[in-house]
Design brief:
It contains twelve helices and 13 strands. It has a five-stranded parallel sheet. Strands 10-8-12-13 form a four-stranded parallel sheet. Strand 3, helix 4 and strand 4 form a beta-alpha-beta unit. The N and C termini lie far apart (94 Å). Helix 7 runs antiparallel to helix 8 and helix 8 runs parallel beside helix 12. It has 344 residues and is an alpha/beta fold.
């Protein structure tokens, strides 16, 4: 009997030894960082804690799967993408329980933003004046912000209509459409990054939106660093057509501040039309002709420093007119033209 008992003990010892070996393997080797096992009880080296630990038998897992499960760290709970709530400029909250798949965007900046984050396929309609990106040419046009074709918009069966003007919002809602009204940025172009992130949340793609927004912010910061050692820059006049020009409280006025340009329309609120006499008197050293140069050939401006020195800049795109991700591209091009020694 004693021999049989000894034999049985040996049989029991083998699987226990195997379990101990597997536990040692699960804990990792010296070449790997130790795995922390989650516990609700803090480590206590006191005699009382040791007594409790000794008196409470521990059930040892007997298979590799159970051992691996016992030593696995708890995984983080994914953050849900929805719901997302956005408050419009009219104070109305819109909650998205899922990403809209048929968007009518009556705003060029929103069109560019959605394409920039890889979500342009959601657009089924836009306004008549969208020109970028090239893929937007295939999107159906439904008029403009102030002459919207409501029948055509309803016919597109959108699950979201975005407008930057409050005018059509009420009628669109009366027709049973979900409408998000947000005013266009008017005095802080850095808000472009925030808008990009907002659209990333709305369409359920915050990662791509975050990358585009971070790139925008980094490029603006690079320009600001380059300008840090520069004192006051040249005097500038921006011609938006027929001598209409922006004041300091506008988006382009903020661009002038970043580039340390002296806006000759420093006393203008919003946009105003300057007389030729005022322009000549204030003698801009740079002219930005947003929509074509009508300054250089005008005899009234023949003696302007900007004209005499050939410093009339005609942008090659409308990037500085649309508060989307391309805005920083327009800023970079203007900075390089004004300060070629700073921006190679």
């Amino acid at each position: 009997m004693m021999g049989l008992t000894s034999y049985r003990a040996k049989l029991l010892f083998v699987p226990v030894l195997a379990v101990l070996v597997l536990l040692a393997m699960a804990c990792g080797s010296d070449d790997e960082p130790p795995t922390r096992v989650a516990s609700d009880v803090a480590t206590d080296t006191s005699t009382e804690a040791a007594a409790v630990a000794t008196s409470a038998p521990t059930e040892v897992p007997t298979n590799p799967t159970a051992i691996a499960t016992a030593t696995r760290l708890p995984t983080a709970t994914p953050v849900p993408l929805f719901p997302v709530t956005v408050t419009g400029s009219n104070g109305r909250e819109i909650t998205f329980d899922e990403a809209p798949e048929r968007i009518v965007a009556i705003d060029s900046a929103v069109v560019e933003t959605l394409f920039a984050i890889g979500e342009g396929w959601r657009l089924v309609g836009t306004h008549d004046f969208v020109s970028y990106p090239p893929e937007a040419a295939d999107i159906e046009r439904v008029g403009g912000a102030f002459n919207l074709n409501f029948e055509a918009t309803v016919g597109l069966d959108p699950d979201l209509v975005f407008v930057f003007s409050e005018g059509p919002a009420e009628e669109l809602e009366r027709l049973g459409l979900r409408v998000l009204y947000l005013q266009s940025l008017s005095d802080d172009f850095r808000g472009v990054a925030d808008n990009v992130r907002m659209w990333g949340r709305i369409v359920g793609n915050p990662v791509a939106a975050g990358e585009v927004a971070a790139d925008f912010e980094a490029r603006v910061a690079a320009i600001e660093r380059a300008m840090a050692g520069r004192d006051e820059g040249p005097r500038v006049f921006q011609d938006e057509g027929e001598l209409w020009t922006p004041g300091p409280d506008t988006l382009i006025g903020q661009v002038f501040t970043v580039l340390k340009l002296q806006n000759i329309a420093h006393d203008v609120v919003g946009y105003s039309q300057l007389s030729p006499e005022v322009i000549v008197e204030r003698a801009p050293e740079i002219v930005i002709a947003s929509y074509g140069d009508s300054i250089s050939a005008n005899p009234a401006f023949a003696e302007l420093p900007a004209v005499k020195d050939g410093r009339v800049y005609v942008p090659d795109s409308d990037a500085l007119s649309i508060t989307g991700p391309r805005y920083v591209v327009g800023l970079e091009k203007l900075a390089k033209w004004v300060y070629p020694d700073l921006f190679d």
